[in-house]
Amino acid sequence: MQSGLLRLGFTGVGRDFPVMAPESPLFFTVTLLFSDQFASAPMTRAHAPGRVEVIGNHTDYNGGTVVGAALDRGVEVALRLTSDGRVRLVSNAKPADGVVETSISTYAEDEWPDWCAYPLGVIDEARLRGFLPAGAGLDIAIHSDLPIGTGLSSSAALELAVAGALFEALPDTNASISRSLLIEIAHRAENRFVGMPCGLLDQTVVGRARAGHLVVLDASTNQSHPIRLPDGLGFALFRSHISHALVDSPYEVRRDECRKALMGLERFIPGIRHLARLHPADLDAYASVLETRPSLRARHVVHEQRRVGAFLSALHQGDAEAAGACMTASHESSRAFFDNSIPELDALVQFSNQQGAVLGARLSGGGWGGSVVALVTDNFDTKQADAICDAYEELFEVRPHWWRTSASAGLVHELLTA
Hints:
By secondary structure, the protein is an alpha+beta fold. It is about 40% helix and about 20% strand. The protein folds into two domains: about 5-50 and about 70-210 and about 410-415, Ribosomal Protein S5, domain 2 (2-Layer Sandwich); about 230-405, GHMP kinase, C-terminal domain (Alpha-Beta Plaits, 2-Layer Sandwich). The chain has helices at about 25-40, 115-130, 155-170, 180-195, 200-210, 250-265, 280-285, 290-315, 320-340, 345-350, 380-395, and strands spanning about 45-55, 65-80, 85-90, 100-105, 135-145, 215-220, 225-230, 235-240, 360-365, 370-375, 400-405, 410-415. Strands 1, 2, 3, 4, 5, 6, 7 and 12 form an eight-stranded mixed β-sheet that branches. Strands 9-10-8-11 form a four-stranded antiparallel β-sheet. α3 (about 155-170) packs across α5 and α10 (about 345-350) packs antiparallel against α11 (about 380-395). It is globular and about 60 Å long.
């Protein structure tokens, strides 16, 4: 396929996202998957990266600040709008499921594999908002090199990739597509259709990331901005052998405990709207009125907000070691006060911090499994990574996967052909 075909039909009118890079190798893979399964060519394609939560653990739904970065791995979607009312889905990550078929009129009642909830949730949001034409159907092929269950937001990447490809294909929406709209739709799909009451970090980072930059989200206003990751720094990700799935975790319990802490403190500190905005001195003064668990959760959130500020200040001042120390302190707080770490993640943090080129490490994402992110210098090499993996394997008798990544670009999508 000539790269010029990738520009066919693309006007760029009203867009606030970059043009798709035609050389993306996954594009050709997902296009082949689409053609093999549906015997036609896709109309649109999209790429959405995974994300790593750098610091700000469970601060987003508490009105705090979170820092994330997009990864160099993600999800590619190829899509065609049809007129038969059918919805057909296929994923390279779930070959045993083959082509999953439902319809626009019956998907809410039909049975389908769990992974289908994410693209169907996006379709549901588009339908409820009146974007889908009457009688429309969809063929969607999904190809991912992002590990599932690692705390790296494979669900948000899938939702944003489907949203980007879908809205690129819809008639009369070219001038109105924005990242804000796509992020909102993906977030609503996760909250309402999937049933996961997550904050906005995942979709915001996936949707707004810029290469070489971190994304800083102020969850009290849902405003975000990029900051450059200093030269010479990057991330190493270590995947534990414990799968991460927030839908089946104590995530909602933690949210409820944070809510109880806020409600308990409102009686003594009028006007507070967000737990993360509480001053540590106020928490020290009134923590005794809270039950033990809400008090511990509040302690983590309040001090985590301060750590996020210290992390950003350290980067601004060029003090990478101090920034890394904030990340390690974040993990210790998650372990001790938020109770969302596990021994496997604790071990990866400990072993990572024993390496000279690692400045700090912490669990990434909701916790209870998944991955650890380490802030590393350019001197971090395979020898140091192997030392971490060797120590982990000796303790748990299974070798963790790892890879080095930089801060990458966010969602891109494009019309291929009508």
